[in-house]
Amino acid sequence: MLPSHVLASAVGLRLERADVQWHVSPGQEDSLMRFWLTFGGRSYGFHVGAEDEILDVIVEDRGTDAEMGIYGRLEVRPAADDDPAAVAVGQRLVVVHDLYAGYLGKPIGARLSFETVDLSVADWEDELHWAIGDLPPAVGVRHR
Predict the structure, then answer these.
(1) What's the whole-number mean pLDDT along residues 44-70?
(2) Where are the beta strands (DSSP E) in 3-72?
């Protein structure tokens, strides 16, 4: 299902909180695994979809920390000031536009427009990407 359809019930609501899950491995930079946005007490999880699928956005509870042995651990933290989603906390969601791959035309993400900021997120080459405003050109998305 397209992100805009899943998030339709959140349009007009205020973003209450943003939580982020990071893969933490010694000697490496933390990598974004997934995140959750909470509107009206309901949390929406943003994940990399299965192979050849679009960004997976689902209604679900916020995740928890997990130990992965030699592969490090997963840590769930409130969005930090430098996380793109943190900027939108406290603002109302105005509209959600689906994002499409520039060369294939398939949907790969969403642009969430809040009162004063846009948050873009996409599943590109099996990695989750997010940014305030537009995603970098390397992610290859276009608006439709």
Answers:
(1) 87
(2) 15-24, 31-39, 42-47, 56-59, 66-67
Q: What is the C-alpha separation between 114 and 81, in angstroms, rounded?
A: 17
* pLDDT of 144: 45
**What is the model's pLDDT at position 11?**
98
Contact predicate 10/39, CB 8 Å? yes
Token pair belonging to 52 = 């050849």
Determine the number of helices (DSSP H) and then strands (DSSP E) in the chain.
Answer: 1, 11
Report yes or no: 74 and 22 within 8 Å, Cβ to Cβ: yes
Residue burial 91-100, b: 16+ Cβ < 10 Å; e: rest = bbbeebbbbb
**pTM of structure:** 0.89
Q: Are 139 and 129 in contact (CB under 8 A)?
A: yes
Beta strands across the sheet bearing 42-47: 56-59, 42-47, 31-39, 15-24, 73-78, 66-67
Maximum CA extent, the chain: 43
pLDDT of 136 over the 70 cut: no
